[in-house]
Design goal:
This protein is α+β, with helices and mostly antiparallel strands and 639 residues long. The chain has two domains: 249 residues, Beta-galactosidase, Chain A, domain 5; 369 residues, Glycosyltransferase (Alpha/alpha barrel), CATH 1.50.10. Strands 1, 2, 3, 4, 5, 12, 16 and 17 form an eight-stranded antiparallel sheet that branches. An eight-stranded antiparallel sheet has the order 8-9-10-11-18-15-14-13, covered by helices on one side. Strands 26-29-30 form a three-stranded antiparallel sheet. Helix 8 packs antiparallel against helix 9. It is elongated, with a radius of gyration of 26 Å.
């Protein structure tokens, strides 16, 4: 039996709509987002938490009670302590816990989510023992019915009313939220209770409100000596359902879907692919992100294109192509259907890159190809003519200028109040790399402009003193003013895109500088430790964390362009592939067993030991790892 992972490590089951079930190995919730039934009202957004967790215990023939659940209460009380009975945990192909009961028997509990309709299957059974005797399981669901960013406290508006029949029950705690159905093969006993002052340690560490009260309308009882106990949680009030048959269908479908040759990386990648009418999209990260334009087009290169999921790529790109406005794609669709946000200069350019990589791989139907290319033309023409937030082609050098005070347009987008932490107004280096690549991919119509911009880039971005590239030129739209901060954005001029803008000795020198100052086992720092503005640890309240977000914090997704640049500079040979794979990708593969299990975190501390931080399940972090693994795979072998 392999050792238990860290009890605070997190698992995730995605429902394919934008909802999910998640929690920790130890069973205690550390985030407001940890829940068993968390569903979108407008997929993939407007998410609500309906069932947060449960209390569970087993009573054996001698009357001995064994707790299976673990709860953390304020100020710092852990009760009950199911973790003391936890023997084993595995998250493949779905989360499964094994407990030692007081009478010597073993109990197995599992949780899996049906990607057909978002139903959550919980089951418990006695495993590998001939010992007989009574074994009664009691499970008491804990409910809220709140926005997933909020917290609930005891209130008179919560409705405990239940409708129950044949071991199934349904509740609607609040009239403006969906109903919840719990379908079981045991019995239901109504008995309303409030549980007060749950403590969410990760919320407290992030400087946020961290306590919550939860309500429990009643409890389910199962005789484990008679067989497997099942409880299916789903949105809605229908209870005329055979719970055992439904559970068997979910298990059968999900077993087939997750079976080999699907790998653990594939299963993790699929978690981010969700529906957004009329097509598909990618969740930027769990548990608190929805779909973002920039993240979608970066992440899909690894999560979708590198895995040959061309049907999904077509659906994603086609859906986004219809959203072009004034030459721009939205960077974010707000949760509740408000107007899209267009505050990104690079999202639209990443779309152009993704479209051309898709077309090269898929040879799509003429109608789809026409729609996608029309969208890319609208973007390039809109950028050239000028659009929102000062985004425009500079006729003097062909480069792309962008930015206005108070607006964060690049991926380095942290903002505290009205203060943009890394404003980068002017001509950011990675934006020029994307712009020139997009122009070159567009073909003859933009060839002259691409050549002009490329010559200007070579003349204007080399920083001889630093032996690297400037991060921004014409800072604040002041001609000749440069920002020499050593950041990883220059990697996109060296690799990571179809065309490198810097080669030869300059590329080697810039890569060496980046490698010496920014490379860590978890990815690339966003600022050199020698910079006075460097912040080595991402911690504290929201303002402190946002101030550190791009000032030294490590981002794993940047390992993709680093690997590309490294192979361009040192040579794409089998030996070099093996070397960069072992040095740069092996640590991230190992990381998948430590924070968000099976996945890659959003960020990590710049200082050693590079503690994982931020979102534990991040799309572009995993996507770029998958893409880089494919890039470095030995010839003729899969990643």
């Amino acid at each position: 039996m392999k050792p238990l992972p860290d009890l605070a490590a997190e698992w995730l089951e995605s429902d394919g709509q934008g909802g999910f079930a998640s929690g920790t190995v130890g069973g205690f919730r550390t985030r407001r987002y940890h829940a068993l039934l968390l569903s979108p009202k407008r997929p993939p957004g407007d998410r609500v938490v309906l069932v947060n967790g449960f209390e569970a215990q087993v009573t054996d023939a001698a009357g001995t009670v064994t707790a299976l659940s673990t709860q953390h209460y304020a100020p710092d009380v852990v009760h009950p302590r199911g973790i003391d009975r936890l023997m084993a945990f595995d998250c493949e192909p779905w989360p499964r816990w094994t407990y030692a009961l007081a009478d010597g028997r073993k109990l197995v509990h599992e949780c899996l989510v049906d990607r057909v309709d978002g139903s959550v299957l919980l089951s418990w059974w006695l495993d590998g023992t001939r010992k007989s005797g009574a074994c009664m399981l009691e499970v008491r669901p804990l409910l809220s019915g709140r926005d997933y960013h909020a917290l609930m406290h005891e209130n008179v508006a919560f409705r405990f009313d239940a409708r129950a029949a044949n071991g199934n029950a349904t509740w609607r705690p609040y009239g403006d939220q969906p109903a919840v159905a719990a379908l079981g093969n045991g019995s239901y006993r109504h008995g309303p209770l409030w549980f007060r002052n749950f403590l969410y340690a990760e919320e407290a560490a992030r400087g946020l409100d961290a306590t919550e009260d939860l309500a429990s309308p009643g409890a389910f009882r199962f005789d484990l000596a008679a067989g497997r106990a099942v409880l299916v949680l789903r949105v809605g009030d229908g209870i005329a359902v055979d719970a055992a048959a439904l559970a068997e269908r979910i298990r059968t479908v999900e077993t087939a879907r997750r079976a080999p040759p699907l790998s653990s990386l594939d299963r993790a990648a699929d978690a981010y692919i969700v529906k957004r009418a009329p097509g598909s999209t990618l969740i930027a990260g769990f548990p608190w992100f929805t779909d973002w334009g920039r993240d979608t087009f970066i992440a899909m290169r690894g999560l979708v294109l590198a895995r040959g999921r061309l049907d999904i790529a077509a659906a994603i790109l086609d859906a986004w192509a219809a959203t072009v406005s004034e030459g721009m794609l939205p960077n974010r669709f707000p949760d509740r259907g408000e107007a899209p946000e267009f505050n990104s200069v690079d999202a639209s350019l990443w779309f152009v890159i993704a479209v051309h990589e898709f077309i090269a791989a898929a040879a799509p139907a003429p109608a789809l190809r026409k729609r996608l290319l029309a969208a890319t033309t609208a973007i390039l023409d809109g950028y050239a003519a000028g659009t929102r937030f000062g985004i425009r082609r500079d006729d003097a050098d062909g480069l792309l200028a962008c930015g206005e005070p108070g607006v964060q347009l690049t991926w380095m987008d942290a903002k505290v109040g009205d203060r943009v932490i890394t404003p980068r107004i002017g001509k950011p280096v990675e934006v020029q790399a994307l712009w020139i690549n997009a122009l070159r991919l567009a073909g003859a119509r933009h060839a002259k402009l691409a050549a002009t911009a490329e010559r200007s880039f070579a003349q204007r971005f080399w920083n001889e003193a630093g032996q690297c590239l400037f991060d921004v030129v014409d800072v604040d739209h002041q001609p000749g003013r440069t920002d020499a901060s050593l950041r990883p954005n220059q990697l996109f001029a060296l690799g990571g895109l179809p065309f490198a803008l810097v080669e030869g000795e300059r590329a080697a020198a810039a890569l060496a500088t980046v490698e010496a100052e920014l490379l860590t086992p978890m990815g690339l720092r966003t600022l050199a430790p020698t910079d006075p503005a460097y912040v080595g640890r991402y911690e504290g309240g929201p303002a402190q964390r946002d101030a550190a977000y791009h000032q030294g914090t490590v981002w794993p997704w940047l390992i993709g362009p680093f690997v590309d640049a490294w192979l361009k500079v040192h040579g794409d040979t089998p030996a070099n592939r093996r070397q960069v794979r072992e040095r740069c990708l092996a640590p991230l593969l190992a990381h998948r067993e430590k924070a968000g299990l099976g996945h890659v975190s959003e960020i990590a501390d710049g200082d050693a030991p590079h503690t994982p931080r931020g979102c534990p399940f991040q799309a572009w972090s995993l996507g770029e790892l998958i893409r880089a693994l494919g890039r470095t795979a030995p010839a003729g072998r899969p990643a």
